Amino acid sequence: MNQTIAAMREAVEKQEKCKASHFESRTVKGGRLGISRAVETFALSEHHSGIKWAYVWVDFRGEEKQPHFSIKLGEYPVISPEAAVHTIIGDKIKNIRARLRALRSRNSN
Fold first, then answer.
1. What is the pLDDT of residues 79-106, one digit of tens each?
2. How would you list the strands of the sheet with 36-45, edge to edge?
3. How far apart are CA 54 and CA 9, in angstroms?
């Protein structure tokens, strides 16, 4: 297991307080935005909510390119690595739109 996947497993286990084991890697394209991500799927055991899967990918942020793991649990509607990526992208778009509305509102006063 490479270091990035091991770090992802540790992040899932720490965040979700359960055991995680690597299941598969899959490259997922993020729809119309054309974003590709290597998504790692982890099988969860002993999760407090009974969730069986976690989908994880890494983005490198900042000038030092620090790794940031995006973790999405496998619960409806997130039932695949593709759905996990689409959900995260949708969440980010909603957050950007909300910030833009707040800025416009503040500037119009």
1. 899 888 888 777 778 889 999 998 888 8
2. 19-29, 36-45, 53-61, 66-73
3. 10
Percentage helix, strand, coil, to 5, in the chain? 40, 35, 25
In total, how many domains does the chain have?
A: 1
Q: How confident is the model at residue 24 (pLDDT cuts 50, 70, 90)?
A: very high
Contacts of 45 by beta carbon, 8 Å cutoff, 6+ apart: 18, 19, 20, 21
Q: What is the pTM of this model?
A: 0.79
**Residue 60: domain span:** 3-108
Q: Are 13 and 22 in contact (CB under 8 A)?
A: no
- Token digits of residue 102: 């707040």
